[in-house]
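Notes, p. 3: input format for complexes.
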Amino acid sequence: MNLNYAKRMDGIKASEIRELLKLTQRPEVISFAGGLPAPELFPVEAVKDISTEVLDEQGTKALQYGPTEGYEPLREKIANRMNKFGVDVEAKNILVTSGSQQGLDFTGKIFLNKDDVVICESPSYLGALNAFKAYQPKFVEIPTDNDGMRMDELEKVLENTDNVKVIYVIPDFQNPSGRTWSIERRKKLVELANKYNLPIVEDNPYGELRFEGEMPPAIKHFDTEGRVIFLGTFSKTFCPGLRLGWTCADGDVLNKYILVKQGADLQASTISQMQVDKFLEKYDLDEHIEKIKEVYKKRRDLMLKTMKEEFPECVEFTHPEGGLFTWAILPEHINTRDLAKKALEKNVAFVPGGSFFPNGGNENTMRLNYSNMDEERIVIGVKRLAESIKEML
Ligand code: PMP
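Output follows (393 residues plus 4'-deoxy-4'-aminopyridoxal-5'-phosphate):
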């Protein structure tokens, strides 16, 4: 049917990852494509236990509407957990959202008029780019290296660009590159945002999944003016199916997020919030995170080792100290969209890196996920991928 859709729909396309994920549903496909947690680590028995307890103890409340800001005991617990990121806040600084993805959409709704500029890392998280696209902004990508976004480049752009409205970053085990920002860059970013009076959106789903080294303080830790909006989530440390995340911000800024939350869906699911709250009360989430890290570290080690052994030397890749992804750069003449088709013939999937650059280019890159496949499939998959790369060289 040819309906008269809103102009904003012109820029909204099916996500390449979603399309790929459909193919990867086939059991024979070894998928390094999605950002899916390992399902065998989901605490199913514990969730059964807490669900029964929540319904037994406060069944009618759990099935009722609740406040837009979120379930108060859970907000308090989230505020306490923000200490891990070096952020000292209270429950009043937390809005519970439907995943951190919702916080990204709200960011667009709150800050972006058509043609406003979003500054992001190059590359950046595809899901955020797609969420922002609904508000018809322009993207300015800032080059990155192993220490995160290049501050000299950012400074040049800020000096010379009108209409910048938001700086969006993923400083810990970035999706897609797996890289983590240095502390100096975090401080410098806040300094520049202060100078140009800009909000920083710090998207941090992976920071707690650190396999080695010290966890740096969040960018929000260096925020003295209340301009950093921190987005957190239980998706990668607990389970994504409950769809619970949070926005941590100050005063008026958080109020704007609460206002749009009300318009979007009134509140996050009451029963999901009570379940997570009960889990945090009765079980040890940090102990659970340790188990996740142990498994993912082994998978990362094996993937990187196999890539080192099997990939041609001309392929470079990152060494993430945590999180879910590594990022590979191939010789320039290899287009990873073609490589993805070839690899799929061998039943191996990954995400071509070009999709993570809002202004295009960089078609010789790819994102590989190591959290979702068991060790045997990781080795077989990387070997097959190496064969496909060699065929294209
Ligand atoms: N931000 C980043 C960088 C992500 O990788 C993801 C999930 N893949 C999200 C946000 C959204 O996660 P959720 O909505 O499940 O919290």
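The chain has two domains: 7-43+287-392, 45-282.
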